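Bumping with the actual sequence this time:
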Amino acid sequence: MSEHVNSVGDADFAQQVLSSELPVVVDFWAPWCKPCQDVAPVVESLAKDYAGKVRFVKLNVDENPQITGDMGIRGLPTLMLLRGGEVLHTKVGALPAAQLTAWLESRLAG
């Protein structure tokens, strides 16, 4: 994916996300999803800003139906913040950078 955002899938989700020492933002997306494409640069920017504090990963829902179903993903894009394997909060839709930053800050503080 990039220097700051990694790709995960059904096979490595538990290791890369659920077992992570750092909080993890998972971007559930699909290549055909225009809002997913719109939010991708925002996710990349946040990943740079939070490097070393929060991991950012992307999961292609078309290629990874098991985790998509297990996590109850019904709309795209879905951003899910997890810490210690637990879901802290979820945002659905392509939100502006300021809203996503505020969301992340509020959830990490709590």
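The tokens above came from a reply further down the thread. The chain has one domain: 5-104.
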